[in-house]
Design brief:
Layout (H helix, E strand, L loop, with lengths): L13 H14 L4 H6 L3 H16 L5 H15 L4
Length: about 80
């Protein structure tokens, strides 16, 4: 459980609601790290840009990217 409460959709600005929609579309739900990052809209926008850039990278096949992401998450103990 997080030590701070995330920003709920009813309290969010337009960009944050869009980010929530994209997260829900991609993962099926809005995860807590996105809700917590929404407290700082510029940081949320920067993370969204980084994620978009990483998804658009075509130098490595998608299967290798997925395996690398899974391995990194396993190493740091991330449940996502």
């Amino acid at each position: 459980m997080a030590r701070i409460q995330g920003v709920e959709a009813a309290q969010a600005n337009l960009f944050t609601r869009f980010a929530y929609w994209m997260t829900r579309r991609k993962l099926g739900r809005v995860i807590m790290p996105v809700k917590i990052t929404a407290h700082h809209p510029r940081l949320l926008r920067a993370i969204a840009a980084m994620e978009t850039g990483q998804a658009a990278a075509n130098s490595v096949p998608a299967t290798i990217k997925a395996l690398a992401s899974l391995k990194a998450a396993t190493l740091v103990g991330c449940p996502f």
